[in-house]
UniProtKB/TrEMBL annotation:
Signal peptide: none annotated. Gene3D superfamilies: 3.40.630.30. This is N-acetyltransferase domain-containing protein. Coiled coil: none annotated. InterPro entries: Acyl_CoA_acyltransferase, GNAT_dom.
Length: 149
């Protein structure tokens, strides 16, 4: 699966070209801008990469508002950690560090979801202050405050 940026997929092979990589970065940045037109089923989002030096550990997406499908299943914030970097606390850091970004976007409480059997992700969400609302379609739905007191 390629990287998603401004509704295009790039393969790893595509991104080996520095110019193509730069185009992808600009497309990702454009997705966050309110003036960028979006297809009706997509929303503006801010993509954050989590790195250690030049090593990519994961990425996080903050969706600026929720469509009915995102309210049901996807939520405001989604994250992924590279398999070789899992179980080292990076997901917790990513989610926690993203909350002030979400607050600056006007999101008071962020909806964050995970599969009902994904116990590590549930612990990450709960450690960030997530309160379980319910389960829908095999997904647990948590509301996480974005303003740290």
């Amino acid at each position: 699966m390629g990287a998603r940026g401004l509704w295009r997929d790039w393969s790893r092979q595509d991104l080996e070209d520095p110019e193509e990589f730069a185009r992808m970065v600009e497309a990702i940045r454009a997705e966050a801008l309110p003036e960028t037109d979006t297809p009706p089923d997509l929303v503006h989002q801010t993509i954050l990469w989590f790195v250690d030096g030049d090593e990519w550990l994961g990425r996080l997406a903050i969706r600026h508002h929720l469509t009915p499908p995102l309210l049901e299943l996807g939520g405001h914030i989604g994250y992924v950690v590279r398999p070789s970097a899992r179980r080292k606390g990076y997901a917790t850091q990513m989610l926690t560090q993203s909350l002030p970004w979400a607050a600056r976007l006007g999101i008071d409480t962020a909806l964050v979801t995970c599969d009902n059997d994904n116990h590590p992700s549930r612990r990450v969400i709960e450690s960030a202050g997530g309160e379980l609302e319910d389960e829908r379609h095999g997904k647990l739905r948590f509301w996480v405050p974005t303003h740290v007191v």
